[in-house]
Amino acid sequence: MSPDDFPWNRWSEERARRIESVIDRFLPPATEPPQRLHEAMRYAVLGGGKRVRAQLAYAAGELTGAEISIVDHAAAAVELVHAYSLIHDDLPCMDDDVLRRGKPTCHVAFGEAVALLAGDALQSFAFEALAGAALRDSGQAALVLAQAAGSRGMAGGQAIDLGCIDKALDLPELERMHRLKTGALIRAAVRLGADCGQAMDADENDALLRYALAIGLAFQVVDDVLDVEGTAQSLGKTAGKDAVQRKSTYVTLLGLAAARERIEALRVEAREALSPFGTRARRLEELAEWIVVRTH
Least enclosed by CB within 10 Å: which of 65, 82, 191, 252? Predict the structure, then answer.
């Protein structure tokens, strides 16, 4: 059976194994000097994580008929940027966390200086991975990733988040923050994966963007619910930190029941956005379903 014919769970597992192998090949070996830096980089990326962003890139690539060997580069790029962001988010000057993906955070395991450099290096390797892909427009791909990671994307969202401790946000402000902090890289994963294949028309591009916007926000609303209902063991990271830091979340603003209703509405938005693509969007639809029902 071809992986394209696998049921969802097998497809997801196969793509997670694939991106693990791809990243393992892209990164320098831990034995290459400077060994401790390379060890920290590999520690932070390999052997854990949901690989949602990589799977979104692969699923979007299937939508446009892309060769999987080309999508490998886009999938690795978004995972490397994501890993760098987690290292930096966990630092004492940021969220000051000690647990990530079920193990000590990078700065706990390697020290703050090495962790900071590991994050910097992973971001650079993300663009190196992207540059190695046979894309229609490599410059545009680099721009998509750079904007998703920068001050108008993920870094900007984190800056807003840091400024909101002990400060109440209204719902539009909260959604703007999360569309940057979480949603920007998710949108980039979908865009980059799709751009590895055949070009789409304006209506198709608009539909794919609406899908990515919906699942990016849904991912964060689910995270807010899990921060209340989950445990460190089930999540692989510290639970309940939003309440301790008195941050505004979808749960604090809406309540649990209304937050779940928001998740369901976003699931419907994502499904409707994909309707013009028919069966070509199978994996994107399955990913949207998984995102809203996940427990970690």
Answer: 65
